[in-house]
Amino acid sequence: MATGPAAMGRDQVPVSRETRDALVFGDALPGIQAYAQLLRTEGIPRGILGPREADRLWDRHLLNCAVVAPALATGASVADVGSGAGLPGVVLALIRPDLSVRLVEPLLRRAVFLEEAVEQLGLRGVEVVRSRAEDLHGRWTTDVVTARAVAPLTRLAAWCLPLVRPGGTLLALKGQRAQAELTAAAAGLPALGAATWSVQMYGEGLLDVATRVVRIDRSAGASMPSRPADPGGGREAVPPSRRRR
Q1: N or C: which end of the chain has fewer CB within 10 A?
Q2: What are the C-alpha distances in Å from 222 to residues 78, 107, 142, 194?
Q3: Crossing angle for the helix pair 108-121 and 29-38, nearest 10 degrees?
Q4: Is the pLDDT of residue 233 over 90?
Q5: Could you tell me the pTM of the whole model?
Q6: Tell me, what CATH number does 47's domain have?
């Protein structure tokens, strides 16, 4: 069973908030704090996050995403589908500057917010792609696709697995129904090229509620998806070439 950074055993005394944040975020903590401030001052007033999220940004959002960072290999390419406010994509990019991250978001106002966040946080190797995941099938694939609170797994797998390179991984951050969703979707996963799948826990011993992740590994021999006919409905209004230097 996977765990988060420097995770503690279940029988150990919980760490203080300061120690926990240092263990999870490390040197990225100032950047995470700047991102939290941006979410409060811009994200919530602009409707990128709900108004009730201000008081639970750290526990419900930032820490929930951050503990998944060890699941990604060094130098991996990542596509965060339905990125919204940048969760988990921006958090992972702040903690792991070795990653190359695409923030995939179809809604213009959210894509604009993500562009501003990338600029203000000085993130490198991060680009914003305004598109639905299914409109990107056949255009490119990536080592890892992440998704959080986007859709039930039965639909999410169909949208995201074609973006995962053969041998790559889909990491779907889920809540308490993670196992139930995986059970419901399992019968259709082999047809999408999935080889193995499981529910993994991250942050046990550090978080009050550990992060549940459905991990689906694509077969190394899976066929690459063909690019669908494009009737002009694909959207990529935010150029993917705008990498930070």
Answers
A1: C
A2: 19, 31, 14, 8
A3: 140
A4: no
A5: 0.86
A6: 3.40.50.150
